[in-house]
Design brief:
This protein is α+β, with helices and mostly antiparallel strands and about 650 residues long. It contains 17 helices and 34 strands. Strands 2-3-1-4-5-11-6 form a seven-stranded mixed beta sheet, sandwiched between helices. A six-stranded antiparallel beta sheet has the order 16-15-18-13-12-19. Helix 14 crosses helix 15. The longest helix has 17 residues. The termini are far apart. About 45% of the residues are buried.
Length: about 650
């Protein structure tokens, strides 16, 4: 029987201990000799210099391990909101996930966002309550918070034990055993402890075993019958009931411990072999799907690839190579297996979400533009709207082509990042979700690609909206014997969409490449905008006439259309709309006044206030332009105790 393969992801709010748990899982499985510490920059999964410097995960790291006859591919995902696209791509290729909840902070804003992502993706999820090595943090309060905020009933499967104020072990509910540390720091079964002997914790363990039986009886008739007859339910029978419970959206199996101290990890990993769904059935004739793009200095681009078939090296398509990827290390393999994840090198560029056939062929996506990405990439580009723009230019004119190519690669790797070219000015605008993403991209541009660039300060990316009908105007562009002429008008739309209408005669007579060139050029002109503050949205272009000479090149079409838009729409014809964010924040109550006052000073409007007497919570609407550098400001005001997250609420007419 072939070895089972399971792909898992770990998600959490920033600083909940996600990467530390990842290291402990690899240590428990024997993949590393000792777990690396994030604060020391030694985490196995965080291999990028930017990750080591910041102590956060940026790119989804990948590692592999075996546990109880199951092969795991393990994806450590970013917790920072700027890298949410990384999480979305990871969830397309997993059978299950672990959501880490910090007992120090409870369910935080990014915890809720991660849980929502998992639910939307239909990924079976186990909870791990972390940081219980501090006995001052309450497991019971955290479980109550989970139920209140996430809306699921946590079924506790491990219980922490303490001696002299330090965690000394955990009790495993299903196996009714105690786990402690060996001399080498591994979790092992305490052979001298048993429930029957009535040792410390056995009463509490029996209580939680009975609760697990009660919950599982809702999903398994045999468990229900045995419970109603007062007969003991053996672990094997309970396990079957818990497998059915794990599918339910109303319950969540919950493991408690300390990733830093290495408690509760063994039970969690064992649960991953029991409670995850089987790998899906893939279509016949598919080699697999691209789930991530990466770039390594000295190696070039590789694809993280989920195989849809079993195939030995001799049958691989020509020019294809497959390897195991552990952090940034590549280890060649001799065969690929269905459902497994590999690093793939191909003789052509791949796209996110792209499915490749058994013969190595892929759909001809065509073009070098980021807008020509695969379906998975398109979906993410629509979901993540860059709110900042930063002007970047070469230090040396001779570096232009190299920077252009490098930015294109980074843009293909991250669907939430976009590049806008200003061919006339010879510079670019980088459009990013947030400031952290921008800083990381600039650092990678220098380190991985050797690009020396000069970057301006990030600015808010506004929306420009057409406020009146304009045109038509006529414009022509001639280069040697070739000439292109266009007659163009524009009207505003109520939505943020773009619409392009072409004259019937033009549609009937123009070749496909000319039609596509005109559409592309007009859409590209909306990205630049009229005032240079952001994209022009809500506009319908109507091409009344378009003529061209045979042999006209695509750049000529782009130039003629761009100049026509410039003649057509003037600054007085557009209105500016600014992005407004919804800020969710929590802090100790003694800082509530200072934090609220600071938000109001930034033109924020508080719309919701709550708390439990110890923690103050609020939601506010605030212009994005007013919260540059907010992380530093709120950290100073609250002495580092405030936690917050933001999401785009929408756009409103600018007041400046």
């Amino acid at each position: 029987m072939a070895q089972a393969i399971r792909n898992i992801a770990i998600l959490a709010h920033v600083d909940a201990g996600k990467t530390t748990l990842s290291e402990r899982i690899l240590f428990a499985a024997g993949e590393v000799r000792r777990p690396g510490r994030v604060e020391e920059g030694l985490a196995t999964m965080d291999y990028m210099p930017e990750e080591k410097e910041r102590g956060i995960t940026i790119e989804s790291g990948v590692a592999h391990f075996e546990w109880k006859d199951t092969w795991f591919n393990f994806i450590d995902t970013p917790g920072h909101v700027d890298f949410g696209a990384e999480v979305d791509m990871a969830l397309t290729a997993v059978e299950g996930a672990v959501l880490v909840v910090s007992a120090a902070s409870g369910v935080e804003t990014q915890t809720v966002a991660a849980f929502k992502k998992l639910r939307e993706a239909g990924v079976r999820t186990l909870l791990y309550v972390n940081k219980l090595d501090n006995p001052d943090y309450s497991l019971d309060e955290t479980l109550i918070h989970i139920e209140e905020v996430l809306g699921v009933r946590p079924v506790l499967m491990t219980l922490p034990q303490y001696e002299n104020g330090r965690m000394s072990g955990v009790l495993d509910v299903l196996s009714q055993s105690r786990l402690m540390h060996s001399e080498t720091g591994e979790e092992v079964v305490d052979e001298g402890w048993s429930v029957e002997n009535g040792w410390d914790g056995s009463r509490e363990l029996k209580k939680h075993y009975a609760e697990a039986v009660e919950f599982a009886s809702n999903f398994d008739d045999e468990v229900l019958k045995m419970a109603m007859e007062g007969r003991p339910v053996p672990p094997k029978v309970l396990l079957r009931g818990l497998k059915a419970l794990a599918v339910s959206d109303d319950y969540a199996l919950c493991y408690a411990g300390s990733a830093l101290e290495g408690f509760g990890v063994r039970s969690l990993v064992t649960a991953l072999t029991f409670f995850l769904s089987d790998a899906p059935k893939f279509a016949v004739g598919e080699l697999g799907q691209v789930i991530r793009l990466r770039h390594f200095k000295g190696i070039g681009e590789i694809s993280l690839f989920r195989s849809h078939t079993d195939m030995e090296r001799k049958a691989w398509p020509a020019g294809f190579e497959f390897s195991r990827l552990k952090a940034n290390l590549l280890q060649p393999v001799e065969e690929i297996r269905t459902g497994d994840i590999y690093a793939m090198r191909t003789p052509f560029e791949t796209e996110l979400g792209e499915v490749i056939g058994l013969d190595g062929r892929h759909d001809d996506i065509g073009g070098d533009s980021q807008d020509d990405a695969g379906e998975g990439s398109h979906t993410l580009r629509d979901k993540y709207q860059p709110l900042l723009q930063t002007r970047v230019e070469c230090i040396g004119a001779e570096d232009y082509a190299h920077v252009e190519k490098s930015l294109a690669i980074l843009g293909r790797m991250d669907p939430s990042f976009r590049v806008q070219h200003d061919l006339d000015g010879g510079f670019w605008y980088l459009h990013t979700v947030g400031e952290v993403q921008l800083e990381v991209l600039l650092a990678r541009l220098k380190r991985e690609f050797g690009c020396e660039v000069k970057a301006g300060s990030p600015e808010v990316r506004w929306q420009e909206r057409l406020c009146r009908s304009v045109g038509p105007v006529e414009n022509s562009f001639q280069l040697g014997p070739h000439k292109i002429s266009i007659k163009l008008s524009a009207t505003p739309l109520d939505s943020d969409a773009h619409d392009i209408r072409l004259a019937a005669e033009f549609l009937e007579t123009a070749p496909r490449e000319i039609l596509a060139g005109v559409r592309s050029a007009l859409l590209e002109s909306t990205e630049v905008g009229v005032l240079g503050k952001g994209a022009l949205v809500g506009v319908r272009f109507e091409v009344h006439e378009f003529t061209w000479t045979e042999g006209s090149l695509p750049p000529m079409i782009k130039k003629a259309c761009a100049d026509a838009v410039t003649k057509l729409i003037k600054p007085a014809d557009v209105e500016l709309y600014e992005p407004v964010m919804e800020l969710s924040l929590e802090c100790p109550v003694n800082f509530a006044g200072l934090v609220t006052g600071d938000i109001q000073a930034r033109d924020g409007k508080v719309k919701e206030i709550g708390g439990d007497g110890k923690t103050h919570f609020l939601k506010a609407d605030i212009p994005l332009r007013k919260i540059f550098g907010y992380a530093t400001g709120v950290r100073s005001i609250s002495k580092g105790t405030a936690l917050y997250s933001m999401k785009l609420l929408g756009y409103r007419p600018a007041t400046v």
